[in-house]
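step: validate -> pass
step: tokenize input -> pass
step: predict -> running
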Amino acid sequence: MATNVIPWYKKKHVSQISTDYRSLHTKHVVKQQTVRKSSSKSVSQVQAQATEAMAEPAYTIPVFRQRSADETEEYQRVSTQVGKGLAAIQEELHRMRMATKTQVDNLAIRREVQEMMTKKVELYEEVHRMPDFLVALRPHTVWEKTPVKLFCTVQGHPRPIVKWYKGGVPVDPLSAPGKYKIENKYGVHSLIISRCVVSDTAEYSAVATNHHGTATSKATVTVKRPAGGAESSQFGQVPRLTEIHASKLEVTLLERFGVTFGVEGGSVSLVSSMVVVPDLPNLPPLAQWYRDDKLLKAGQLVEMCVGGGSAHLTLPHLAKDDEGLYTLRIFTKDGTAEHSAYLFVSDATPSAAGAPGAPMSVKAYDINQDYVLVAWKPPNTTNEAATSGYFVDKCEAGSDTWVQCNDSPVKVCKYPVHGLSVGRVYRFRVRAVNSAGISRPSRPSDTVTALDPAESERLQVIKISGKYDIVIKDDELEGDVTLPGAPTDVHASEVFKSYVVLSWKPPSPRGRAPLWYDIEKCLAGTGAWQKINTAVKLRSPRYPVFDLQDGKKYQFRVFSVNMYGSSEASAPTEPIQKVDEYGSERPVGVPSAPGQVVATRNTKSSVFVQWDPPKHPKNLMGYYIDGRVAGSKQWFPCNHKPFKHTRFVAHGLIPGETYVFRVQAANVYGLSDESQESSPIAVEPALGGGVQYATPSAPFGITMLSCDGTSMTLAWKSPKHCGGSKVNAYYIDKRDADTLAWKEVNTSAIRDRICTVDNLTEGTFYEFKVQAGNLAGVGVPSAPSAPMKCEAWTMEAPGPAYDLSFSEVRGDSLVFLWKAPVYTGASAITGYLVDMAKKGSSEFLTLNEQAVGHRYLQVSGLEEGESYVFKVRAVNASGVGKASQLSEPVCAKALPGTKEIVCGVDEETGDIFLSLEACEICESSKFVWSKNYKAIGDCPRVSASAKGRTSRLTFTNPDKDDLGRYSVVVTDTEGVSASHTVTEDALNTMLELSYAIRHPIVPLKHGLNYEILEKGHVRFWLQAVKLSSAVSYRFIINDKEVTSGEGHKISHDVATGIIQMTLDHFTRADEGTYTVQIHDGKAKNQSSLVLVGDVFKAALKEADFQRREYIRKQGPHFSEYLSFTVAEDCTVMLVCKVANVKKETTFHWFKDDEEIVPETPPNVMSGSCAFPIPLFSRKDQGVYKAALSDDKGKDTSVYEISGKVFDDIINAIAQIAGSSASDLVLQCTPEGIRLQCYMTYYTEEMKTVWKHRDSKIASSEKMRIGGTAEMAWMQICDPSDKEKGHYSIEISDGVQTHTRTFDLSGQAYTDAYEEYLRLKAAAFAEKNRGRVVGGLPDVVTIMEKKSLSLTCTVWGEPTPEVTWFKNEQEVASTEHTKVTFDGGKFASLVINQVTPEDSGKYSINVRNKYGGEFVEITVSVYKQGEPMPEPKLGQPKAATPAATPASTPVPSKSPGPPSKTPTPTPPKAQTPAPSLKSPTPASTPVPKSPTPTPKSPTPPRSVKSPTPPRFMKSPTPPRK
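step: predict -> pass
step: emit ->
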């Protein structure tokens, strides 16, 4: 069979296919495809073959079952295809044989041609010449773990020999098998370095040599580590491989953990996924985790596991001790697979603002029986105050109580803790202190036990015959020792400013008795020893001394003491002196500042920082690196734990931002001074133009969008890694699902991720794979797609949408976008339905009930940090179509530093724009703007520009057509995007602002206005927002410009922006229009004021008034006219203030033009006068006037009290009275029950409302409302049960309402009603008792032998009895003394022919059942001819009235005239009634009887009924 043979120079390089598993797998994992295509098998195929190859064959009993119809059809299809496949394989083998034969023939022809050409070349090359590089080496920059190829072309005769060098050292491929490969083909010499590492960064040279000389070509290879990889600055920190563990597993790390950030108190997990072949669940690979160079072990603070295709490390309780470089090392068949990344742990929120961070790495050293030395590392300080000291706490095991060890902060990072109990277990922690407060405590140290470390050294073990061990203590060999020996080697092991630690060696011999020590000190050279541990028995050969004086030297000596006594003193120490912080006596103190700091680019979010070590390191613990944004004063820490090396990668920076760095060194004394700041550096990737990029990873997610029976339309997803440059090409291969051979679909590149594959056979299953290409070449192919049947789509519903993407991802929302289906179905697409589910869940939720017509959806209500997947379904008239492929999971979390689009107006040009400042960017990034999520492209309505990290979209001529939602996406970033909706209102606002900027005016705070000044001058003025010194202006009045001169004063003030003109004489001629025109640079403005008609008349009137006022104030005048105030006693005061007065000035008050003279004359010299109006009421309305005069002039002030003024005064009185109102007081009267409210003053003009059960009470016969000057009252006449309830009085002052209440119900009503009945009965008795109503004189003088008639009128109901007495003896009716009582009304005592014996005291007693009255008359009889004696008044004797029985019925109506309601006397404050029933009726006199008294020549004399009214008080005491 004829076969088309492709020329060799057009062929793609095809790697050899090996059936060996390791060869296949190694080639796949390392990804050594250096050409566009490879016929090697996919990962899944390789793993399947590997598993099959390594598995032991075993016989499995087949399980036979019945197949369903679908399974039967599939089985028949597969059987048929297998048959076809075998035939196809035979055809393929035959084709390969023929092709091989053709290639052999071609090779023979080519060899013959080359031999002929070689002969010509040899003739030409007979000329001898030295080596020369036709193609020199080129520099390369590559990613770590990718290969690089250096090649060159050399000519010379004889043929030169080429040797390769790295940094001047020959490259030996045998020194690292598989690392280097040297080739020489057709004169092209090449050096291939496989799987580059950072240490391969060097200068490489090719040296060509022959007999005539040497030629050299050099090039630099730079190996970069991608973001998330191990830090390039961590050389020396990755742990060395000290032990090899054999493994038969092939392990390849896939998704690796990146640089991680945590916070104290939180938790973090480091996860790396991997592929293990074979994957045996019960035999996971051996994995080791390291922090820096320390192997980690599982425990309470570290959790680790391996299995399920991943390795996990969890730190559940983060502290700054956990910060460092973490390395995962997995042992594989070929060695190890490793990955490293840094974990940063920042300080938690401090306990007090400005407090320092917690110390770290707390450890205990030099552990003894009662002593331990605690050491730690100092925290970093950036913007906080410097750390002034530390507190050390201890805690016994089993307890949660921490005890502070030091009373005052220790200034160094070491502290000796003594006083421990032997055998106890302790933990320690440290807290830092500064001026703002105390830090959070550090992580506790590991537990330590207070034991004697020398105890084991005093034991000797003797082995007998290798079977028995005999343990002997040293003191058993010492013999019988009582007194111990003296300690030796006494010295100061720790010397600091705060303390000195003494150390010595225990005595030998020491004896068997328990041993302790005494210490003495003295000033050096004095010999005056003093014991310093008087209260403490020291068990350990360590002791801290704290109380040494500065600047003095001391000597110490130690005694050994036991129960038998003390040893000799040890030899004294050398003189010891405390040192200051900076080590004036010894080379100690904080280190000097580090040297020059240099920052260089690393990745898009990190910077490589390196520095020179300090000149005086002084036992360095490490370095702290700080950074700040250029232009800012706020520093932030880049690391939180001292870093030991002099190069560091600062992570977590904002892409595109510019930073400055500094470094501090740390040791036990604290932090050094800051180094000099580095030069500013922008955060951008180190890779740039002209570098060697890596090829992209494989595309994925191949899906079919449409099929017509002869062609398929496919789409796929972009590679996850672009290799450092933009993917600009895709290549597609296809094959029949039943064959092995792949065929090209396209020979020219496809730029879009959609392609239609033609010339397919209907009914055949096809598989496809896609490769992506960029500047570096073509990457590895994707995994083959699932078999797709070429069958025409005839369904009426639409096909799947494709190219799902996300934009504007935030913590609770995102925008989901897609492209329309290629296959629309039987009708046009009307909308789309979007489904969403959490990652890993199969429960999808439809987000929109109604299909949306556009191809994007704003999704809100997401949980921050949660990952979601989406799919979309198209809808047409036939129904809902096929769902799209699931989107890639998206995490609802905004990128750090994300900013939104800003809409504004350019202050210089007035252009309306949308602007976005990207939170990250790289050199290849572009800003892509869209409107309603459709790319804008070249549109005359807008123009886009970019500068640095900011892009601006400017509107050319904005109008309503520009309304809509605008979005922007920053390419080659982690999804930087934002959107903004331009509304009509916002556009109108910006158009106004744009017009103002493009047509500048002098902005005015206030337009032209006028002001009437003193003397009647008129000031016209306006105020600009800002004026320059070059401002010019002019005033125009009625179209005529005026200038400053007589009558016009024009001026301006640049500082305040005021321009003004003052008219001295404002007359009727000044009516008209006033205009000010302003020019200030390019800006101008004018403002006008029209003064005509009523406006002008008002201004003229005001000017005249001010002129008259000025004249008036030249003499005595009122500086404040009459007004009113109300005093605390509710007296209304008319007040005024006067000015320019003297002693001769007179002051008069008038009311309604009639002068009124106050009790206190006004004193004008005091500056104020007042006229009091007590007990203000409506009668005080009128026109009040105050007149002021002297020889300089006069002035008057008139104040009319009526209308609103009267109401205001009443309200002011009500405000005081209402505030002083007492609680309601209950008082019973004969007419009913009365509620009274006492206050400072009451008048009926006050707005007072009485309410019963929240209903207003109107004054009536039943409910009477009244008051006096001291109180307001409301009386319930003849009360009944209907009147029970809640009563209140409301006093309104126009602003607030003052309310007082009383609950007249229950027992209160019962008691009041009983009291009312009693008083009513008593009043009835008082009204109807017997009495003398007139006619009797007090004294009668009469001549003897004349007749005396004593006649009076009496009244009572019932008719009273009348009895006459003489000298307290009843008078009987006789001829001489005749007693008569006519009609029950007139009582008479007639004495005929009086004699001197008739002189005496006469009295009449009028009485009925309700009581009576006793009236006395003195009668004097003188003889004829004698002078009339002087009358002597008798002393009337009050008759005791009879008490009214309680059972006396009350008559329905009294025959007497109606009575007036008496005004009861207010009760005494705080004097409650002792009882409601009066046991003694005659306790208090009652008001005068309302019965009218007939006229009489002499006033009546009577004693009133003593029955009193009772008062009932509210439970709340009345006002004081």
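step: describe -> The first helix runs from residue 21 to 30.
step: cleanup -> pass
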